[in-house]
Design goal:
heterodimer; A: 601 residues; alpha/beta; 4-stranded antiparallel beta sheet; 26 helices; 14 strands; B: 291 residues; mainly alpha; two-stranded antiparallel ribbon; 2 strands; globular
């Protein structure tokens, strides 16, 4: 498990920071213009990484970058000019202003999806520039604002070399801290959201809050980048922070690669260097950045980084050779229920859910006793999924009540189910494809608040006991389902059967009392179906986990379940012992379409 | 009162252009699910086409009004065929990004080719204004209001009634189903982009004498087009017409009665208000149930 922390520490914190500082050192002997340029490039790297968080990880089309940088640049200059605040002290104030601005933009805007959200950022961009132009008394308006000379530890912003060195160190610190957030829990949770929103939600991730947090943090770093930029450019002009800057910088993460902070560094570095290195490109900057961005989106959305990775020989080839070895749990299916407690795990009373007059669930009562595996079958359109979604919190009932382990859950949202010790799997597998199996399961632990994730990010890099404990629990769960050999593989590379196992590992790692299983063997091979049945029976016996199982596969339910219910046309038409229930004539008629059972019975 | 009526006429004039712009945006979105952030650039290209045709080449207006929309429409169809067709499996996020950069590409290319600042195009009709009591109605105003709205309604008619429109609507409702019924996605999407581009080119022609011809026209028109589309519900064509007219009127009234600082910010603030308080607009289409 030290592997995990080492890779985060090296790949996301130490290396980029060293690279940037080393670049600064190298530039010390260069010409004054080259040093000025190096300062600009380093800041572009920081902007690129900040945008990787919001564009690449949170999947927001951010077109307010110029505005956020303006808030930092103008904020810093105005604090120095009007209030005499020393430059170094303006930096934390600017970071805070960026945080607040990001928050103000995000709280209303994250309610919108996709293009509406992109438009909201454009609106913010224009309003900030219009504000700067109109508030000429403080900002210099359209004429521009002269930034006072800055003196930091004897370094003046007018000395290009030393100033470049100062900016490089500041950017290295900033990129390093962004690396902690991106490479560890916080960034992984953002990736989990973009991979499978429903699953993230089911494990307690508040999608909106994470998006707002990504917005605010990213904006804070953009404001810092603006504040670092201001003293070097000497005169601030509202137009230079306009929509054009936002579009050019949006190209940074896209061209560089949106999947890790390296993409931001490469994108910012390359796109800011190219026009200077190839002077004839200079005046066409926006033109070819636009061309590059379109080409990347068409050819390889992974950007320069993705292209490099696909060309270079894969370093982790051995992982492919490892085949999961399913542990042997004994071939015995759960013949008798696990020790039952007096409590009911699920008690649905008079549940009703209608869609435009179609009553999908019609006054249903359902009781699942703690400790048992309860199968729920029924023909298509019987209302199974609606009932399941109500129990898992995704679509609340119109009327009726649901109690889990004796506690009414009412209309609590799905993400709070895990607090009631209830987890679920998905009919269409919803693993977090970009994350390793281990990280998939760690998210299953359910401690996924924004502040938890931020703290856990630091914890993972520092290798605290809490982070090690989470990784150990996750590995235990992976071992239990037979995937420990694949712990560090990205989940998207797993076979469907193994992805279903991974979902089970994610569902059990928090030691829940109840698991809701939505067709856990649909689409898997016969042999794998038997193994998953054994696995579920074993988990039920071993940990006393109650299970509600929706399935079309009657043999699977008959083999596994201690009791079952049959739904048809929104009602439960029979329930009880599996064998007896399946044998009942009304069930056979409804489910198997046997019209002649009366004669044969 | 006269003042108010004159203002309203001005509002309708700019509103008709916004409506035409918004209809194109909605046509493309309705048929292909893509939100075209390059629409402003298409409009700008239409305006430049008008400048080239009228001022540089001295073509008669009726030829310009035929050639330019066709040209912009073909360009839009080519964009769909060369770029978007290769991204059929991409998510909405990638599509929006590509159209954002395609728009940038358009305005930057124009900036390089036409180095000068804002260019002017003579109005189509410059005859004696019609005097209606205290009201002075220039022929130009009449031409824009009537012409833009007639063009917009014709576009709506093609989309809603003709076979092309049926295919587009079928595809936006159920892509696989429409394909199985023999509609070709590539053809229909290219048609939709053609129609959208054509309307954008027309909007650019109508806008050119009023708003001036410059690369900034791209941004100056995409935001109002978007606002008009959202007011209308984003998927409703008649909503886009009404949205454009409402926006034009509101903008003109605020410009007359409020300080100039507010005027610049108005459209943006209105967009924010509409997004926040009526994200489904005036004519919400029935939303598919979330699974």
């Amino acid at each position: 498990m030290s592997k995990l922390f080492q890779s985060v520490l090296l790949g996301s914190v130490i290396l980029p920071a060293l690279l940037i500082v080393a670049g600064g050192m190298l530039g010390l002997g260069a010409s004054s213009f080259a040093q000025y340029l190096a300062t600009q490039i380093v800041i572009a790297c920081l902007v690129g990484v900040a945008l990787v968080m919001i564009v690449g990880y949170a999947r927001v089309i951010m077109l307010a970058t110029g505005a956020m940088m303006a808030i930092g640049a103008y904020g810093s200059a105005m604090l120095m000019l009007h209030l005499g605040v020393p430059y170094l002290l303006t930096l934390p104030i600017c970071i805070l202003s960026g945080l607040v601005a990001g928050f103000v933009l995000a709280v209303p805007s994250t309610r919108f999806k996709g293009h509406h959200l992109a438009m909201a950022t454009i609106v913010f961009q224009f309003l900030v520039v219009i504000g700067i132009r109109e508030a000429g008394d403080w900002t210099g308006g359209a004429l521009g604002l002269r930034v006072p000379n800055v003196d930091v530890f004897g370094i003046s912003a007018y000395q290009d070399g030393p100033w470049m060195f100062f900016v490089a160190i500041a950017c290295a610190l900033a990129i390093g801290s962004l690396g902690v957030l991106l490479g560890a829990r916080f960034g992984k949770t953002l990736k989990a959201i973009s991979d499978a929103e429903v699953a993230a939600d089911a494990y307690g991730v508040d999608l909106v809050r994470f998006k707002i947090a990504a917005f605010a943090i990213s904006s804070a770093y953009l404001a810092l980048a603006g504040a670092l930029l201001a003293p070097g450019v000497r005169v601030l002009d509202p137009e230079s922070f306009g929509i054009h800057l936002s579009i050019v910088t949006l190209g940074y993460p896209i061209v560089g690669g949106m999947g890790s902070l390296w993409g931001g560094i490469i994108g910012g570095g390359v796109l800011r260097t190219l026009p200077e290195a190839l002077r004839f490109l200079g005046q066409y900057q926006e033109l070819w950045i636009a061309l590059l961005a379109i080409a990347v989106m068409m050819i390889n959305p992974g950007g320069i980084l993705g292209i490099a990775r696909s060309v270079l020989p894969a370093s982790r080839q051995q992982a492919k050779d490892v085949v999961s070895a399913a542990p042997v749990h004994g071939a015995q299916p759960a013949a008798s229920p696990a020790p039952a407690s007096a409590e009911d795990a699920i008690r649905v009373t008079a549940g009703v859910k209608a869609y435009d007059g179609l009553v999908a669930v019609d006054h249903v009562d359902l009781v699942v006793k703690a400790g048992e595996i309860h199968g729920l079958i029924g023909p298509n359109g019987a209302g199974k999924t609606t009932l399941f979604n109500a129990i898992s919190g995704f679509t609340p009932f119109d009327s009726g009540t649901i109690a889990l382990f004796g506690r009414q859950v009412g209309n609590e949202p799905s993400r709070t189910r895990i607090k009631h010790s209830v987890t679920r799997t998905f009919q269409h597998v919803a693993v977090f494809g970009q994350l390793s199996c281990l990280d998939n399961v760690i998210i299953g632990l359910g401690r996924n608040g924004v502040t938890d994730a931020l703290a856990a990010s630091v914890g993972e890099v520092a290798g605290t006991a809490g982070a090690r404990d989470a990784a150990r629990k996750a590995l235990d769960a992976l071992r239990e389902v037979g995937l420990e050999n694949l712990a560090y593989e990205p989940a998207r590379r797993l076979s469907l059967g193994n992805q279903r196992r991974l979902e089970i590992a994610r569902a059990i790692v928090s030691r829940p009392r109840l698991i809701l299983l939505d067709e856990p063997v649909s689409g898997v091979a016969r042999e794998e179906e038997h193994r998953i049945a054994e696995l579920l029976a074993h988990l039920n016996r071993q940990h006393g986990i109650t299970m509600l199982l929706i399935e079309h596969n009657i043999a699977f339910v008959r083999r596994l379940a201690h009791s079952m219910s049959v739904m048809a046309a929104g009602r439960i038409i029979a329930s009880g012992d599996p064998e007896q229930t399946i044998a009942r004539p009304e069930v056979r008629r409804q489910y198997f379409g046997e019209a002649h059972v009366e004669h044969s019975a | 009162m006269t003042q108010f009526l004159l203002l309203s006429l001005g509002g309708l004039r700019i509103g008709a252009i916004y409506a035409l712009a918004a209809i194109g945006l909605v046509v493309i979105h309705k048929a292909t699910r893509a939100v075209n952030f390059a629409h402003g650039a298409f409009i700008m290209l239409g305006a430049y086409g008008g400048f080239l045709g009228v001022e540089r080449w001295g073509l008669p207006y009726w030829q310009v009004y035929i050639l330019v929309p066709l040209g912009v429409g073909l360009l839009a169809a080519a964009f769909e065929y060369l770029v978007l067709r290769r991204m059929r499996t991409a998510d909405a996020f990638s599509l929006v990004i590509v159209t954002v950069f395609a728009g940038t590409l358009g305005s930057e290319a124009i900036r390089i080719v036409f180095e000068s600042e804002t260019l002017a195009v003579a109005p189509v009709l410059s005859g004696r204004p019609i005097i209606l009591g205290p009201l002075i109605l220039t022929l130009e105003t009449l031409w824009i209001i009537a012409g833009a709205i007639v063009c917009g309604l014709a576009g709506i008619y093609v989309f809603s009634r003709a076979g092309m429109g049926r295919a587009m609507r079928a595809m936006s409702a159920n892509l696989r189903g429409a394909q199985l019924c023999g509609y070709s996605v590539d053809v229909v999407y290219a048609q939709a982009w053609f129609l959208g581009g054509l309307l954008a080119g027309l909007a650019g022609l109508f806008a050119a004498p009023r708003l001036g011809v410059s690369p900034e026209l791209a941004i100056a028109t995409i935001v109002p087009a978007f606002v008009a589309a959202i007011i209308g519900g984003f998927d409703s064509l008649k909503g886009a017409v009404l949205g454009g007219l409402i926006l034009g009127l509101l903008e003109t009234y605020t410009a007359a009665f409020l300080p100039p600082a507010f005027k610049n910010a108005f459209t943006f603030l209105l967009l924010l208000v509409v997004l926040l308080f009526m994200p489904d607009g005036l004519f919400p289409e029935r939303k598919a149930r979330r699974v």
